[in-house]
Amino acid sequence: MGKMGIAAQVYSVRDEAQKDFPGTMRALKEYGYEGVELAGLYGQSPEAVRDCLKEAGLVGISAHVGLEPFREDMEGTVKAYETIGCKYIGIPGMSMDCHYGGEKFQETCRFIEKLADCCQAHGIILMYHNHDFEFGKTDRGTYFLDELFGAVDAKHLQTEQDTCWVKVGGVDPVAYLEKYAGRCPVVHMKDFRRNGGEVEQYPLGEGEQDNAAIVKKAAECGTKWLVVEQDDHPYGEPMENMAKSAKYLRGLQDS
Predict the structure, then answer these.
(1) Cα(207)–Cα(230) distance, integer angstroms
(2) What pLDDT does 2 receive?
(3) Is 7 helix (H, G, I), strand (E, B) or coil?
(4) pLDDT value, residue 167
(5) pLDDT (tens digit, 9 = 90+) per residue, 88-137?
(6) Domain encompassing residue 35
(7) What angle do CA 35, 36, 37 make, to 5 degrees?
(8) At a CB cut-off of 8 Å and minimum separation 6, what does 16 contact?
(9) Which stretches does DSSP call E strand in the chain?
(10) What's the CA gap between 87 and 67, in Å, rounded?
(11) Going by C-beta distance under 8 Å and a sequence separation of 6 or more, which residues neighbour residue 158?
């Protein structure tokens, strides 16, 4: 069982990346990250992003890209992320009309299959990244997320489980990784606490997640990359928090 790579979701430091993309990438490398997952190109061309990551010593493992750019130009959009070197593309979410029971569900599933075929032709694996709302119950008593992964097979769509939103959705992240063992190449690590009904995000190790158990199970289930994502930083500065998370996660892997 090989050690998993540790990457940063650039959305966690989006303002910093927009102001100084090269400097932000160098800092993430210094914190101990080996790769990044993009959420936009921050005013850079794909070629500039590729060269910047190479100079910083980072791997551009993945990118979050909504369905609309693919609807407008599937081949061109996939090629842009191939240029950067991404091996994965994560759909960051979909509206409920695209999920089970929605009027666009079947159409969306067929589009995802077509997109996955295009991605595979360029050496890229397509994934779906969840939030908590996909753990709502359907009229069949199932989760919306499971209906999606049942309607689109593993050949076309892998999971990118966001372990924070899995737990907020009422499901044990360790059990959910086990459910999709072999289908979870990239896993989002995100810690949080509940404060008066609100979900507040923290650096890894400062919240209520059992991160050690999640990391152990991810490794057992074939995960290749752990991606640290902190959408908001109510306590501390973004770069400082990402440094803390990298150090903590590295310690878990080394223990």
Answers:
(1) 12
(2) 63
(3) strand
(4) 98
(5) 999 999 999 999 999 999 999 999 999 999 999 999 999 999 999 999 99
(6) 5-254
(7) 135
(8) 24, 238, 239
(9) 5-9, 35-38, 59-64, 88-91, 125-129, 158-162, 186-189, 191-195, 198-202, 225-228
(10) 18
(11) 88, 125, 126, 127, 128, 183, 184, 185, 186
Residues 157/128, Cβ–Cβ less than 8 Å: yes
Total count of domains within the chain: 1
Q: Which of 51, 130, 120 is nearest to 88 (CA)?
A: 120
- Specify the pTM: 0.97
Give a three-class secondary structure readout of 210-224. CHHHHHHHHHHCCCC
The alpha-helical segments, DSSP class H, found in 85-228 are: 105-121, 144-151, 163-168, 173-179, 211-220
Give the domain CATH number at 72. Answer: 3.20.20.150
Q: Give the per-residue pLDDT at 255.
A: 75
Place of tokens 């979050």: 64
Q: Are 5 and 59 in contact (CB under 8 A)?
A: yes
Residues of the chain with pLDDT under 50: 1
